[in-house]
Amino acid sequence: MRALQYTSPSEARLVEVPDPDCPAGGLLLQVEVSGICGSDIHFWQDRVGGYPAAPGHSGHECAGVVLEGTGLAPGTRVLALAPDYDGFAELLPASPESVIPIPDGLTPERAVLGQQLGTVIYCCRKLPNVLDATVVVVGQGPAGLLFSMLLNRMGARRVIGVDVQECRLQTAAKVGVSTVIHAKKEEVVSVVRAHTQGMMADLVVEAVGTAETINLCTHLVRKHGHIALFGVPKTNVLPLDVEALLRKNVHVHTSVLAQHEPGLRSFRLALDMIAGGRLDPWPLVTHRLPFCQIVEGLRLASTPDSGAVKVLLDY
Question: Are 5 and 20 contacting, i.e. CB atoms less than 8 angstroms apart?
């Protein structure tokens, strides 16, 4: 089978590797569609574990069909969470606990978007009631856009989206974000202050993962407000404006490893919401490429102003 292999920073290639066996008590899947996540860009550009990476690393947004195994009939289409981050391959061994059958009528290319939506739902379970709240989402990449869409549906009075890429802000406006701020052209704190009559935001979601954006959140949130840290930084230690957090008595929420949630409730809800038309993430998809062009997909997803928001790969 073919699999992606990161060979050095910002370099990768497709390699031929032996087909995996079906694991005992598990499943063997034929991957049909996968998505490129922001965390894949981190792994590609600056992998902590060094290079070359194991073939298949770091794919974790996969939809496919069961070829053989235990618990699900061959031919069953599933969303596969790939907790070992090995999903950039044509064949994927999986445990029954890491896959969810796709609802009837939902195509694989739409179902695969349920992985990232599931991580957003998992984070939102930790947050306070947002009815009538003013929310700022810093970062309008695929995850940030899903936060904007979901928090809107959860009853937020106003959702403000912040980004530095015009194409992402245009997508944000199309999916219902009431106010968009271009961080390179506008002074973000001043704009939020004006829109909130000086009160600032009840909740700020950080969906980028840089020191600059994390510290920006501390200046956007109101006193006794909430910050959700979702973006994954490239480094383990970042400078933090602790003084601002302390003086505002801010509540900070973190969210990682949603794929280990017992019963995968958040991902099941994500699939149900997409299948039922309650939240449609399809407007986020800007590019679909064949798997053989995955390196081009990584370059598109990582290049500012390329026009890429969500990139999907067809196998």
Answer: no
